[in-house]
Amino acid sequence: MTRCTRRLPLIAALLGLAFAVPVQAEEAYDPWPGLVQDIFNGRPMNDGSAVIGIEMPYRAEDAAIVPVTLRSKLSPADSRRIRSITLVIDRNPAPMAAKFELGADANVSEISTRVRINNYTDVHAVAELSDGQLYVSKVYVKASGGCSAPAGKNVEEANSRLGKMRYRQFAREEAPASRVREAQIMIGHPNNSGLQMDQVTQLYIPAFFINQLKLTQDDSPVLSMEGGISISEDPNLRFTYVSNGAKRFRAEARDTEGHVFRNEWDVEKPGT
């Protein structure tokens, strides 16, 4: 065995160590403390296990459309209410995925949507209550590449559906007299992340997404969303709320290019 040959195992071991250290450092790095500073101005975070629930699959089937459900866990006897919920995907390029403002009289108790996940990551839900305190819960999701995944529709198809909205209602198990409703709003929009590549030109597609959504029953606020690039193509919100007896349900959405989309529906005949 030559001297060079005898040195090969040592060289390989040193190279392996050199490459392993950055990987271990990356895995050990926790972006959450910095995000608390950046997004919430360093405000104290309380344990939210009895306040806000967050449900996501541990291993996502498709990183571009990962389902997430946010659910109030406040006791009916609790005099506080949730004012807002901020969804933070820690390792996404733009971590704040969405901020939901809940109507004061709508009693929204559950919100579901679909998001993009770019790397294995913690996902935090931060609820601000009427007492001014922040409460946080988190889950861990194994998914990657969602922000750069190609759009599911071609440009022509996406443009033909731009801003088209649908409103649906779902039957609830409560007695017919109950005013609790479960509804869904769907908006046709590519919600380009800015990280996707045009497969023909090989150029990045500019970011273009719904950044504001307001839902009202007549003129009373139900739910509003400040969205970012992490919300999946064709934004989809499913939620519960308490009816105030309004006959019309209204939606207004705005995107990053200044388009405004509006629609309204007869509450008793939702449809398209």
TrEMBL record:
Keywords: Signal. Residues 175-265 form the Sulphur oxidation protein SoxZ domain. It comes from the Bacteria. The keyword Zinc does not apply. InterPro entries: Fuse-rel_SoxYZ (IPR030831), Ig-like_fold (IPR013783), Ig_E-set (IPR014756), SoxY (IPR032711), SoxY_sf (IPR038162), SoxZ_dom (IPR014880). Residues 37-147 form the Ig-like SoxY domain. This is Quinoprotein dehydrogenase-associated SoxYZ-like carrier. The lineage of its organism: Bacteria, Pseudomonadati, Pseudomonadota, Alphaproteobacteria, Hyphomicrobiales. Residues 1-25 form the signal peptide. The keyword Zinc-finger does not apply.
